[in-house]
Amino acid sequence: MRACARSISASVSMADCLALQDVSAGYHETVVLEQISLALREGATLAVLGRNGVGKSTLLATVLGHTTLHAGQIAFRGQPIDRLRPFQRARLGIGYVPQEREIFASLTVEENLNVAARSGDRWTHERIYTLFPSLAERRRNLGNQLSGGEQQMLSISRALMGNPALLLLDEPLEGLAPVIVDALLVALHRLREDEGLAMVLVEQHARLALEFAPEVAVLNRGRVVYRGSSQALLQDAHRLTELVGVSG
């Protein structure tokens, strides 16, 4: 816990929800991310895009504390967290929705939520069921009895039960039917607008991500090669194709 007492670099704003400064990280001796500097304001949403294998999921894993940090600093709400263990970062208010969903298949919807619940926090079963009514209908169903879309709703809900100020989402729209994608985006809009939840959204569906998130960072070979307005990138078809392979 000594990290909490370290001074914060002047370039890291106390108003930022999340700030990475010159971060290089990877797995053991392998460096995947190189000199990443990113900041996210309270309540803001950042899309993280890039081709496969450029380090997007590693970026989230690094914020969560699951990689080897070789250099740089990570701060959450003005507090350095790069020496904290993953469970300590979660307790500070960092929620995570993994790419593989990772719900408990042998537990019911309600039991999955109970596992992540924190006493006295604002996210209750009732509020979750208001956000995702289909989960209320299946509250006694086991995780492996849910559709892919319902499993994703449950994965997001379980993260919310930890009462996060920041939600990290790793490809939450992958493999889902368009009607489910629309429903999830409506729910994420509500979380941002009504709850003031900050989000980092890693997504392969570049256009959907850019339309949802006002700001974007594009990675290539472990480095940030574009950081700016999502609308500006959407309107520059040539640049968008060059960076992430999206055409039209």
Structural description of this entry:
This protein has 248 residues and is α/β, with parallel strands linked by helices. It has a domain at 2-93 and 164-244: P-loop containing nucleotide triphosphate hydrolases (Rossmann fold), CATH 3.40.50.300. Helix content is 35%, strand content 27%. The protein contains 10 helices and 10 strands. It has helices at residues 56-64, 86-92, 109-116, 125-131, 133-137, 148-160, 178-195, 206-212, 230-234, 237-244, and strands spanning 16-27, 30-41, 45-49, 68-76, 79-80, 94-97, 166-170, 198-202, 215-220, 223-229. The strands form 2 sheets. Strands 6-7-8-3-9-10 form a 6-stranded mixed sheet, sandwiched between helices. It has a 4-stranded antiparallel sheet with strand order 2-1-4-5, with helices on one face. A hairpin with a 2-residue loop joins strand 4 (68-76) and strand 5 (79-80). Helix 3 runs parallel beside helix 6. The longest helix is centred in the C-terminal third of the chain and has 18 residues, at 178-195. It is globular. Residues 1-11 have low confidence and may be disordered.
